[in-house]
Structures are given as structure tokens and as C-alpha cells.
Amino acid sequence: MRKAEVIRQTSETKIQLALTIDGTGQQTIKTKIGFLDHMLELFVRHGRFDLELTCDGDIEVDAHHTTEDIAIALGRAFSESLGERRGITRYGSMLLPMDEALVMTAVDISGRGMAVVELDIPSEKIGQQFDTELVEEFFIAFARELGATIHLHQIAGKNSHHIVEACFKGFGRALGEATAVNQQAPDEIPSTKGTIN
Do the beta carbons of residue 187 and residue 86 sit within 8 Å? Predict the structure, then answer.
């Protein structure tokens, strides 16, 4: 089983999580930010991962530290779960519609961490706590910790909730595809040098 447990504690947040890549979409997620809980639940469900996550963060300041630190911990958990990346498909992509919104997501678990996020989200906040600029911060931090290239490109959309939801659902499905074991080469290790050509 490809799984990991991560504890991350800073002056702003305390995070505990347990991840199983080869799961069924089961989750217990408590970040104290309702919209972020909702997005992570959708990410897990669509990726077919199992996740237990709790975060005690300084949300009285804002949602920034909680969102970024969760992405760091989650990216690290995926990296540890995949280990030497033996047998992974490596690439995954999804073109996901969410009502009027349409977002393209692509992932390459390459060993090189970067995120290109091109979204036009109309509102600055969703709910009372979540600043929409944190969507990009989440994916940058996740990409850096996993060592993956992540692209998120909005093709259509007017509703802020729908646009962000399409991002997290699509990312779950793309990452699920990229982390899946390639049945044609289940023992192949993509690289021994930390990056994949």
C-alpha cells in the first residue's frame, strides 16, 4: 500500500494527515475553513485517495497559512507515498466541466516542481474565509513538495465557486491518473537522479 503520515507544525499551523493513494475516496477533513474542506473532499473523492486531515491554524488572521501549509503537507505525503515512483503512469490530465465552468488540468510527476495557474476568478472571496488568490498558492506549494509540474487553465466560467471546484475535481482526477501504476511497466522506475527527463 502506498501511504504516508505527515505532521507539520509551525508558529501558524499544526497539521496531521494520513494519506493512502490506492484508496476509495474516503475522507475525514477538518481545516476550520468550510470551503477548503469542501474542495479537499472533492479532490480526494475524484482522485480515489483516502485522507484523514486535521489542521489547527491561525484563521483569525486569514486563510493563507492554513491553505499553503496544508498544500505543503499534502504534497509531501504524496511524495513519500510514491517513494521512488516505481511503476507510476507519471502523466495525467482532465478537461472538467462544472456547469458553465470548464478547466483543463495536466500533471507531470517529473521531479521538477512548478505550477502554471491561469484562472479568471470573478470574486476575491468565496464564503467568509477563503480568498480566491489562495487557489494559486495551494497548487504552487503542492507542486513544489511533490516535485510535479501542474497546469491549470480556465477555458470558461463565470461563477467563482464553479471555477475553483472544477480545479480541485480535475486535479484529483489528473493526479489519480498520474499516480496510477502502469500495468505495462509496473516495476519501472522513471529516474534514479531525482528528476525525470
Answer: yes
**Which three-class secondary structure state does DSSP give residue 102?**
strand
One-character DSSP codes across 15-78? EEEEEESSS-S-EEEE-S-HHHHHHHHHHHHHHT-EEEEEEEE-TTT-SHHHHHHHHHHHHHHH
d(CA 116, CA 98): 20
- Contact between 196 and 110 under an 8 Å Cβ cutoff? The reply is yes
For residue range 159-187, what is the model confidence (pLDDT) as tens digits?
A: 999 999 999 999 999 999 999 998 888 88
Q: How far is residue 142's CA from residue 68's CA, in Å, rounded to a whole number?
A: 8
- Widest CA span of the chain, in angstroms? 50
Q: Which helix (H) or strand (E) holds 92?
A: strand 91-98
